[in-house]
Amino acid sequence: MIVLNFKTYSEATGEKAINLAKIAERVSREQDINVMVAVQHTDVYRVAGSVDLAVLAQHVDAREPGSWTGHVTAEAIKASGAVGSLVNHSERRLTLADIGAVVATLKKHNLLSVLCSDTPETSAAGAALSPDMLAVEPPELIGTGIPVSKAKPEVVTKTVEVVRRVNEEVIILCGAGISSPDDVAKAVELGTKGVLLASAYVKAKDPYALLSEMAQAAKRASKR
Predict the structure, then answer these.
(1) Whether 91 is catalytic
(2) What is the pLDDT at residue 198?
């Protein structure tokens, strides 16, 4: 599985978000691999309506519809075509109580939760809340091009170990600095089901070639 976070990059906003999502859709179909895209709230509707691909919001609030100006509800992202949301990304941190409330709200609306954590310990605590997916991302490596799967492989292996003790069902991913096919392969070899990445794809000169090679690397590593 490869989850692509478009963040708020200008290269992944508006029509450009649709173009990148269509490339991801093509790779997903050609390589027979699960690819998801997390887009800005303003792009959820247009992207979801343009591709046959799982589209995630980048954040959602634990609020039911009502007088919550400026908040984003699970009901709203679902109505826009999203299948779920990132939760607690390092650039949009939540308290543990809020994480639990958001995960529960997403479940209530039959939406996927992709919980982000930064250490094995926080990953274990998060896994106890039963998210659908959990991505471990040491924040100091995000956007650096230095992959956690190589720089801190022990963070990944320890996360897999402790999360499995708590929750055998959650799908474990890793992120932070993932920028090459080899990084993806290493992540799978360390016991994850895939990766979460952003700038490497969004800012790539040839996003199709990069994502195709990453998908192939993930499949080869999985077979090994």
Answers:
(1) no
(2) 94
Q: Which of 25, 75, 121, 137 is catalytic?
A: 137
Amino acid at 36: M
Q: Which two tokens stand for residue 93?
A: 């941190």
Q: In whole angstroms, what separates CA 64 from the centre of its chain?
A: 24
- pLDDT tens for 89-115 read 989 999 989 999 999 999 999 999 999
Catalytic residue check, 71: no
Region of residue 155 (phi > 0: left; psi between -120 and 50: alpha; otherwise: beta): alpha
Compute φ and ψ for 32, nearest 5 degrees: 55, 55
- Beta strands (DSSP E) in the chain are 2-5, 35-39, 54-57, 84-87, 112-117, 133-136, 171-175, 195-197
The residue-averaged pLDDT of 16-24 equals 98
- The single residue of 64, 71, 89, 140 carrying the catalytic annotation is 89
CATH of domain 2-223: 3.20.20.70
Alpha carbons 117 and 151: distance in angstroms, whole number? 17
User: Where exactly are the structural domains of the chain?
Assistant: 2-223
Partnered with residue 173 across adjacent β-strands are: 135
Helix, strand, coil content of the chain in percent (nearest 5): 45, 15, 35
